[in-house]
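Aggregate trends can hide what the representation actually does to any particular protein. For completeness, the protein is quoted in full, as a sequence line and a line of structure tokens.
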Amino acid sequence: MKRNQNDFITDIGFLLFILLCFISVAFIANDPTNYLVNIIFLNVAFLLVIVTYFTNLTFGLILNIIFIFSYASYILYNTVTKGIEYTAGTYFWLIMTPLFTVAAFLFTRNTTKLQQENAIIKSQNEYLGTIDQDTLLKNIVSFQNDEAIFSSISRRYDMPLVLLVIKVRHWKELKRFQSSEEMRLALQDISALLESCIRTSDVLYLLDKEEATWGVLLLTDDPGAKLVSDRIKNRISEANHTDFATKYRVRIELRVGAKLFDPETIQTPLDFIEAAEKELEYDV
């Protein structure tokens, strides 16, 4: 498998971090007289690494600059006022601490990026959980949420609410001699056709992808629902004589069932769907 640039940088950061740890351990072991001081500086270096991981490289380097300035000032003060001479090893941690920070950043930057991408994907999945990915129509989860709002409006303002349930006649038989890609495209085409037949204030749902079942919530009465139903059938008939006839080599027919909302008999969104599906028996 081909490795990308981010993976290569991560590997370099990991190897550099291990190398710096090895050098630090060797340095501490070679200077037993300053063991405690070196351990303290090593802990400071790791603390800056942790801060960089939970923030960003810029903030980590700023802290490193503060540390270097403070430590260098302390060395300069002792050299000028007390005449203390420092060896080259004294400046070891001035170099190693920022190197630890950079190495840890290179090692963890890909992990941080993956966490951000994962958060984006989770957010998208939460959105797509109510949307069908092929047709971009709301699914049955959205229908159950929206039906409660529509039914509440219907009761409060005494407005008739109708659910249209639309199925493709002989869908299972069609799936036997059409490819999965053709059936996916058919769902998209029929969904687009249905959307063109309703008002922008009405909502179209893909209730069952396997059975090719759509639903439309309409704030209208039975004659209004009949008008929409006839419009849908006329449009599918026109499509069969043009686009669908050449594209799918079969005649696609729709069955439409309409059910007026009755709060006495319909208690849940699924009851509403079931009642509308029963009306399909009269559409022969």
